[in-house]
């Protein structure tokens, strides 16, 4: 082992070389050595005893990657030996801090498999308890070999997997026994000594007991992880005393001592303490009810530091943010509201409003990093005000959220009374609802009156740092947080507030851009609360802000960005401008500027404008599309590399344009004149899209010396596919194929999708739509290189490159194999690719290759889900059915590579054909394909076995008869003419019912309890595990008819008749058909009666 260790040490040192070739060869040598049985042990030894820190870190890092690659996943426990895991723990207890941080990542992989999943490490907890008990801080005065910080770090790694529910599909999941054991044997003894640790820390100046403070921080992390989801029973009696210790730490917190390691530890501990309080209030309030006043007092002391935010670092501000969040969570409880509500005024004046007001840090950030300023101060993620929100991160966002929570809370019951006497609280039985209406919100009683005392700036003499401006900045921020409160009020209240307190800023001759940007954000947040008659004034003000120039040296980029966001909110709230062209022209001008970020924002707004405007905007698309294409072209990099954001958003906006035009054409399909107009528009946009795609794809897809192809980067491939889809749909004759360079674009596109591997990160719906359109285009225009690829130029070997359909086939096969969420879409394409194109005798080899690939991929994925019937059975089995109808011999060979593979598929196909299967075969094409496939299966079984004597054949025959009956019923239903008057009456009745339901829902609002919340998420988790949840894109695919091509010409009734005729003697003698099935079949097919006598 020593020789191996030395060799590994040399290679690891080589990986630190600045020479890339040396690093590469050393990495390859390490990979070859990784199969040696002592490899992992050598890495552990080197991480502790390496000759220098660089080597030790390199060994720990390689061990981390080795563990993730070889030990993470199913059946990994057999790879983790007892000796390895014990040696790893020993190393963790001895490692220096910088190595420990890396080494613990390897340990997490082992813990997840050995301790959490398998529960096969019974000695771990007692041995770790002993180590902690005898570590250096626990056994003072003795020279312990164990470091307390290291031991606690190991404990933290062990608890980490339990921070989330292990079985989310169980709404009443009990605490895992491993966590109960950890709490009992380790956490409880630690908490028993926490008072001593805290006293030791508080008795000396900050930093004098650094190791003790670091230990307390890790203990707090462990407790937080332990109670984030579960509540181990041994911890319950310890919580009160432990929280009192934490209050002591919080009382010692100071934001004046910054920029030192010692102060940083205290701040990190305070941050973790607030995490603990949040979890206790949210998940385990019954255990800490008596501590609620202390928690509130602790948080209040911190939030009152908000006036000093401009002087604080990020971590200090994060702690203030968490303190606001704790108060928000407390306010969601009845007891917490009763404690806090008497202090609302003080809280608003001394903590919330100072956090909202503008400070010097805001001005600096506006100038130095405007995008960060927008993210932090003009947030678009405050969609719902709630005490349970997490990760707001900045004190301002958390203060806005808390203000919103306070505003929507109800004040004491009040009734309208002329004398105001106490007797007015008594009410008659019929006055119950009227009494409820008199319970006014705190927003009306306190918040709005408080904000109204700050005057609107005139914008004449104040500079940007004057108190009147900084205060009014806070007022606007506050208004933005009142969305939920104002949404419950009469819209006239919001209208009056906007008219008197916000819109005047836009007419001020020299109003501060800081206020205008914030006002834009406020209008965007409150559009849903405005009466319709105000929308025009708001839109006019926002459009004015969207085109505002810079104020001298002050950039107005945040003003324009916030205006764009607010305009988008207004449009999404169903406001339709009287004229769309001025807005579109403003967007054109804004996208065509030197600032990539600003262009990007313009394209983002363009997408919203086109989606909201629909046909009103579509009529302008042909006249503006070239301008947008030209702007995007300027930003496309000349070499294959990831595209910048402006190009991404530009392609996205063009894709929305393409979809909008297509929708307009579909809506006007019966009006020839309008349909022709939209067809002309599509042709215009298709030419522009083709020019853009040529620039984006063709220069990169160039042939180099070795005849290999340099493909363009896969950026925006789904949106680009939408543009390509428009180009293909605009082609009606072969001349257009050449004019738009369709063939060249398709060659590159098919190569790119064949290499596609970003299944989890990027949408792919348009790629699949392109495939279905592509096969139809090939039938119309006979695309060159569709079946057989281009032959490379000499001196390359005369082997054709991958054809277009082969690239498509590779993409579809990979989708079925690698990405379960794309199975529906991929299987739909299987039918189109095999059945629609006209394969010639010369191209049969290509079709056979596709059938083999599709069958293998479909059956491989089916094996993964066959243990339990699910929604994925149907697309996978029907995809194999299309393959089977092409080449049954070939498909049987592929299936039989697995033991009894053909029988497995045939039996499953019979199962989904039965009436009892869910989801049942529904569309006409699905039923037809299953019928003719079952006929083919039975016929081939008859030829092979000479009769209906196999279980597979009999099962398939029963399923065929059931399906044939259902097909007849389906055809009969399709042929029946519905009475249109009855339909209208039904619609009216449904509308009336809907109205009634709406009224009832308003009266019977129901707030979800924690039990209902857990139950709902448990059901969703279970459905996800069973593969029953269908993605949004697949829901549309489910309703589409399959592309059967030539199979549509097959007469399924005659096929069934001939099969029954062939088997009539066997059917009479076999007696395996249920009598009720025969009766139903003969009712549907009376012509088959002679064969059953």
Automatic annotation (TrEMBL):
Keywords: Nucleus, Transport. GO terms for molecular function: nuclear export signal receptor activity; small GTPase binding. Residues 415-424 have a biased composition (Polar residues). InterPro entries: ARM-like, ARM-type_fold, Importin-beta_N. One of its GO terms (cellular component) is cytosol. It is found in: Nucleus. The keyword Nucleus applies. Residues 425-435 have a biased composition (Basic residues). It comes from Stephania cephalantha. GO terms for biological process: protein export from nucleus; protein import into nucleus. Residues 413-435, 971-1012 are annotated as: Disordered. This is Importin N-terminal domain-containing protein. Pfam families: IBN_N. SUPFAM superfamilies: ARM repeat (SSF48371). Residues 26-94 form the Importin N-terminal domain. It comes from the Eukaryota. Residues 975-1012 have a biased composition (Acidic residues).
């Amino acid at each position: 082992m020593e020789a191996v260790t030395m060799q590994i040490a040399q290679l690891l040192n080589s990986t630190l070389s600045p020479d890339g070739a040396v690093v590469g060869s050393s990495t390859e040598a390490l990979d070859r050595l990784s199969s040696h049985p002592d490899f992992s042990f050598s890495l552990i030894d080197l991480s502790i005893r390496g000759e220098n820190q660089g080597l030790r870190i390199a060994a720990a890092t390689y061990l981390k990657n080795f563990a993730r690659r070889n030990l993470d996943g199913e059946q990994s426990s057999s790879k983790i030996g007892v000796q390895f895991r014990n040696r790893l723990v020993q190393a963790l207890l001895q490692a220096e801090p910088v190595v420990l941080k890396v080494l613990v990542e390897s340990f997490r992989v082992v813990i997840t498999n050995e301790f959490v999943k398998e529960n096969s490490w019974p000695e771990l907890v007692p041995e770790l308890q002993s180590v902690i008990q005898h570590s250096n801080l626990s056994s003072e005065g003795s020279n312990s070999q164990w470091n307390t910080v290291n031991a606690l770090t190991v404990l933290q790694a062990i608890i980490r997997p339990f921070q989330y529910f292990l079985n989310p599909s169980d709404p009443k999941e009990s605490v895992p026994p491993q966590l109960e054991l950890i709490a009992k044997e380790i956490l409880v003894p630690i908490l028993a000594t926490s008072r001593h640790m805290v006293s030791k820390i508080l008795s000396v100046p900050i930093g004098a007991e650094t190791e003790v403070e670091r230990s307390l921080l890790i203990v707090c992390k462990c407790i937080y992880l332990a109670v984030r989801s579960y509540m181990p029973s041994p911890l319950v009696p310890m919580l009160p005393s432990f929280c009192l210790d934490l209050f002591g730490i919080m009382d010692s917190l100071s934001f004046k001592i910054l920029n030192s390691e010692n102060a940083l530890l205290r701040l990190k501990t305070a941050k973790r303490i607030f995490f603990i309080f949040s979890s206790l209030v949210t998940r385990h309030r019954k255990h800490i009810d008596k501590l609620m006043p202390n928690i509130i007092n602790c948080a209040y002391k911190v939030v009152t530091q908000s006036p000093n935010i401009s002087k604080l670092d990020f971590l200090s501000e994060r702690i203030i943010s968490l303190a606001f969040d704790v108060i928000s969570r407390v306010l969601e409880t009845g007891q917490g509201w009763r404690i806090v509500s008497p202090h609302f005024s003080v809280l608003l004046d001394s903590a919330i409003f100072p956090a909202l007001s503008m400070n010097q840090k805001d001005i600096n950030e506006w100038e130095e990093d405007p995008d960060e300023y927008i993210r932090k101060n003009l947030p678009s993620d405050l969609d719902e005000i709630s005490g349970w929100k997490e990760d707001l991160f900045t004190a301002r966002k958390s203060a806005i959220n808390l203000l919103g929570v306070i505003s929507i809370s109800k004040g004491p019951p009040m009734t309208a009374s002329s004398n105001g006497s106490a007797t007015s609280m008594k009410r008659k039985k019929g006055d119950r609802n009227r009494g409820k209406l008199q319970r006014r919100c705190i927003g009306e009683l306190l918040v709005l009156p408080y904000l109204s005392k700050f005057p609107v700036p005139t914008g004449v003499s104040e500079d940007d740092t004057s108190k009147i401006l900084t205060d009014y900045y806070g007022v606007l921020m506050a208004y933005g947080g009142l969305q939920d409160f104002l949404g419950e009020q009469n819209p006239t209240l919001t209208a009056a507030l906007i008219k008197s307190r916000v819109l005047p800023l836009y007419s001020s001759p020299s109003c501060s851009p800081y206020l205008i940007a914030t006002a834009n954000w406020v209008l965007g947040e409150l559009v849903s609360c405005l009466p319709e008659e105000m929308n025009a004034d708001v839109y006019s003000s926002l459009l004015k802000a969207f085109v505002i120039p810079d104020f001298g040296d002050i950039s107005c980029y945040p003003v324009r960005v916030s205006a764009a966001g607010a305009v988008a909110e207004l449009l999404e709230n169903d406001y339709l401008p009287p004229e769309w062209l001025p807005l579109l022209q403003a967007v054109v001008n804004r996208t065509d500027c030197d600032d990539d970020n600003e262009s990007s924002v313009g394209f983002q707004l363009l997408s919203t404008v086109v989606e909201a405007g629909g046909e009103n905007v579509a009529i302008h698309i042909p006249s503006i599309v070239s301008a947008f294409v030209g702007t995007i072209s300027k930003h496309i990099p000349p070499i294959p590399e990831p595209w910048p954001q402006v190009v991404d958003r530009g392609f996205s906006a063009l894709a929305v344009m393409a979809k909008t035009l297509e929708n307009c054409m579909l809506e006007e399909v019966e009006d020839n004149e309008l349909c022709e107009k939209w067809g002309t528009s599509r042709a215009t946009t298709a030419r522009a899209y083709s020019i853009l795609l040529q620039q984006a794809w063709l220069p990169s897809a160039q042939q180099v010396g070795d005849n290999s192809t340099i493909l363009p980067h896969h950026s925006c491939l789904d949106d680009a596919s939408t543009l390509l889809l428009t180009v293909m749909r605009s082609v009606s004759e072969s001349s257009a194929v050449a004019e738009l360079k369709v063939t060249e674009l398709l060659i590159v596109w098919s190569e790119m999708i064949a290499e596609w591997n970003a299944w989890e990160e990027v949408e792919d719906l348009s790629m699949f739509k392109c495939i279905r359109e592509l096969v139809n285009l090939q039938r119309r225009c006979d695309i060159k290189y569709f079946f057989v690829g281009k032959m490379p130029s000499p001196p390359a070997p005369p082997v054709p490159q991958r054809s277009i359909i082969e690239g498509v086939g590779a993409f579809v096969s990979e989708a079925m194999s690698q990405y379960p969420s794309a199975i529906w879409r991929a299987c739909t394409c299987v039918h189109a690719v095999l059945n629609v194109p006209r394969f010639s005798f010369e191209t049969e080899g290509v079709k056979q290759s596709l059938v083999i690939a599709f069958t293998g991929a479909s059956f491989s994925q089916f094996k993964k889900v066959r243990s339990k019937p699910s929604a994925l059975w149907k697309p996978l089995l029907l995809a194999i059915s299309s393959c089977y109808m092409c080449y049954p011999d070939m498909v049987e060979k592929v299936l039989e590579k697995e033991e009894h593979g053909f029988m497995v598929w045939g039996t499953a196909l019979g199962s989904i054909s039965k009436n009892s299967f869910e989801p049942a075969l529904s569309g006409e094409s699905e039923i037809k394909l299953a019928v003719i496939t079952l006929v083919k299966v039975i016929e081939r079984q008859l030829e092979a076995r000479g009769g209906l004597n196999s279980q597979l054949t009999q099962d398939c025959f029963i399923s065929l008869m059931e399906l044939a009956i259902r097909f007849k019923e389906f055809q009969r239903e399709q042929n029946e003419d519905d009475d249109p008057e009855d339909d209208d009456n039904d619609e009216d009745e449904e509308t009336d019912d809907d109205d009634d339901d709406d009224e009832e829902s308003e009266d019977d609002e129901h707030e979800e309890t924690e039990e209902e919340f857990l139950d709902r998420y448990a059901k969703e988790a279970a459905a996800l595990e069973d593969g029953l949840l269908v993605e949004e894109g697949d829901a549309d695919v489910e309703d589409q008819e399959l592309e059967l091509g030539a199979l549509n010409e097959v007469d399924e009734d005659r096929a069934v008749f001939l099969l029954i005729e062939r088997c009539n003697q066997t059917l009479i003698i076999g007696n395996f058909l249920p009598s009720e099935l025969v009766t139903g079949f003969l009712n549907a097919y009376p012509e088959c009666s002679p064969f059953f006598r």
